[in-house]
């Protein structure tokens, strides 16, 4: 049994792949080391929904056999990972983070799980999440079957949601990468709070077959990793058309940073007010410094602001209406009352009251938003803004009481970029960019046109060559 | 003589007590029925906000039907 040094738990996918090829350890030894670490430390952060040690060892044995025979299946071969517990794995519980579904078992694998398996990645565990990915709107971090997601940087703080376990497990070195999902903020928020890199792909690029639905028109699945480069490797494997997903765009993604546009050709839009006024004061120095790094990449920077449209109102109405429709049987059966968060229970019930005219109005506003973004992306290629304007909130704090600057800035800047990006189905890359004075991580997001992931990743890789925030480790 | 101004300390104390009062009221455990009533009121309020926002008549909803 090889002795796995601590550094390995914080290595990137490419680094781990190199060590496997160099036979520093076998895939079985690596799977065992990560499984043990996940089982031991996962509960410390309420990050683990289900350990899959035996499953992982079986997959790893197959990888070792392949490597012995010289069959190399790509950079993910033999790399352990965790999947948000809204992705099905045949024959094992898939709880969606919610008590009413605690005993739910599917007889098929989600498409992303299947694709990762074919690439030789090793599924080490299912990771905790906010119940029903937050459908109905939750008020407290404790809205989860496994308790509140605790942040490895400070366990009195939240790990973010709804991909809580995916964010904290990657940050604490319990898995090299994880799969999360986002409807509105569920990849970018845990990435920002936990100081890891995450990619929300263009809507339709990654199949959602076998994943819990919350909002058919807004759900996306994406990677949470240690670096932008790792996100590129994982996205290449999990993307692609799928006739089982009606929202599939039928497109694949080829991670080809060498063919991305030259950075000097890229026009990056930003709003100074985001960094100077909307951001929490303790996070402003980190955000301002990150903006300077972006400028230093040689890109052209352009000041920009979003047009005045009701972004949050439209996003909230669409998610509530679709979520209530998805979970109507749960609501009508009364089992919804088993959820942990009272506001979420009530939000799901009230969602059934949303009139068709209101849902359609929100979807028509969404068309205006899509058109507005099309116009913005004539003038710029990428938008940059804080992923979240401040660090992780305290576990006990209600989530509707976040920081709001007083007096409120007159300029809206790119403040609603999260709602906009999700409504318009745009890709976003979240990059750790420093720490607050309380030593909590914060991140910036890069948002681009649909299917422009290679541009975002190229910019992200360059940003991470010039900074080491993504290499920092929490005190685990 | 009646003093019309407050010291900074008195002002801080007054503000703190009013903030805690508001917070205490907010944090009073609402019954499930009260929370539901609140959420339903939010749905109505959002409906009113949507109604006020004018969308050009030709704008179609942002989904595509693929036969």
Q: What does the main sheet of chain A amount to?
A: 11 strands, mixed
Q: Helix coverage percent of residues of chain A?
A: 25-40%
Distance between the termini of chain B: 83 Å
- The mean pLDDT of chain B is 73
Low-pLDDT runs of 5+ residues of chain B are: 1-25
Radius of gyration of chain B: 24 Å
Supply Rg of chain A: 21 Å
What is the quaternary state of this protein?
heterodimer
Shape of chain B: elongated
Average predicted confidence as pLDDT of chain A: 97
User: Treating each run of at least 4 consecutive H or I residues as one helix, how many helices of chain A?
Assistant: 15
The amount of beta strand of chain B, in percent, is under 5%
Q: Main β-sheet of chain B, in a few words?
A: none
Summing up helix and strand content along with how strands pair, one would put the structural category of chain B as mainly alpha
Number of strands of chain B: 0
Helix and strand pattern of chain B? HH
User: Which H/E pattern describes the elements of chain A?
Assistant: HHEHEHEEEHEHEEHEHHEHHHHEHEEH
């Amino acid at each position: 049994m090889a002795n796995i040094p601590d550094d390995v738990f914080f290595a990137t996918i490419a680094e781990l792949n190199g060590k496997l090829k160099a036979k520093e350890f076998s895939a079985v030894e690596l799977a065992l080391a990560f499984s043990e670490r996940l089982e031991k430390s996962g509960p410390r952060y309420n990050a683990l929904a289900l350990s899959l040690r035996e499953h992982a060892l079986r997959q790893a044995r197959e990888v070792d056999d392949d490597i012995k025979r010289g069959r190399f299946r790509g950079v993910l071969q033999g790399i352990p990972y965790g999947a948000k517990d809204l992705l099905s794995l045949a024959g094992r519980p898939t709880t969606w983070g919610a008590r009413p579904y605690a005993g739910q078992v599917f007889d098929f694998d989600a498409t992303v799980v299947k694709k990762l398996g074919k690439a030789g990645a090793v599924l080490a565990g299912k990771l905790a999440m906010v119940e029903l990915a937050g459908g109905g709107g939750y008020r407290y971090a404790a809205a989860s079957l496994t308790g509140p997601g605790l942040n490895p940087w400070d366990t009195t703080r939240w790990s973010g949601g709804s991909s809580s376990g995916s964010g904290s497990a990657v940050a604490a070195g319990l898995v090299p990468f994880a799969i999360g999902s986002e409807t509105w903020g569920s990849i970018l928020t845990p990435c920002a709070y936990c100081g890891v890199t995450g990619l929300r792909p263009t809507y339709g690029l990654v199949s959602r077959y076998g994943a819990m639905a919350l909002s058919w028109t807004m759900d996306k699945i994406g990677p949470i990793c240690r670096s932008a480069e790792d996100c590129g490797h994982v996205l290449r494997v999990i993307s692609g058309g799928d006739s089982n997903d009606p929202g599939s765009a039928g497109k694949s993604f080829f991670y080809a940073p060498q063919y991305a546009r030259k950075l000097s050709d890229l026009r990056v839009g930003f709003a100074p007010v985001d960094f100077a006024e909307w951001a929490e004061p303790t996070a402003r120095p980190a955000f301002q410094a990150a903006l300077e790094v972006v400028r230093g990449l040689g890109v052209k920077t352009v000041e920009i602001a979003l047009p005045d449209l009701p972004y949050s109102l439209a996003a909230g109405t669409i998610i509530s209406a679709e979520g209530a429709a998805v979970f109507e049987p749960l609501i009508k059966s009364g089992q919804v009352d088993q959820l942990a968060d009272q506001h979420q229970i009530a939000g799901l019930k009230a969602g059934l009251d949303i009139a068709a005219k209101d849902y359609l109005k929100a979807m028509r506003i969404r068309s205006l938003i899509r058109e507005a973004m099309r116009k913005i992306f004539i003038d710029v290629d990428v938008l940059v803004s804080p992923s979240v304007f401040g660090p992780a909130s305290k576990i006990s704090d209600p989530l509707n009481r976040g920081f709001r600057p007083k007096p409120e800035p007159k300029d809206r800047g790119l403040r609603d970029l999260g709602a906009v990006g999700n409504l318009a189905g745009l890709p976003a890359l979240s990059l750790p960019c420093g720490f607050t004075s309380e030593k909590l991580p914060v991140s910036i997001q890069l948002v681009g046109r649909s299917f422009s992931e290679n541009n975002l990743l190229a910019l992200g890789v360059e940003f991470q060559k010039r900074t080491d925030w993504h290499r920092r480790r929490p005190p685990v | 003589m009646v003093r019309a101004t407050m010291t900074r300390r008195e002002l801080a104390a007054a503000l703190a007590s009013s903030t805690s009062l508001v917070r205490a009221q907010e944090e009073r455990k609402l019954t499930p029925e009260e929370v539901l009533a609140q959420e339903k009121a939010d749905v109505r309020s959002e409906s009113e906000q949507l109604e006020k926002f004018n969308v050009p008549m030709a704008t179609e909803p942002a989904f595509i039907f693929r036969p």
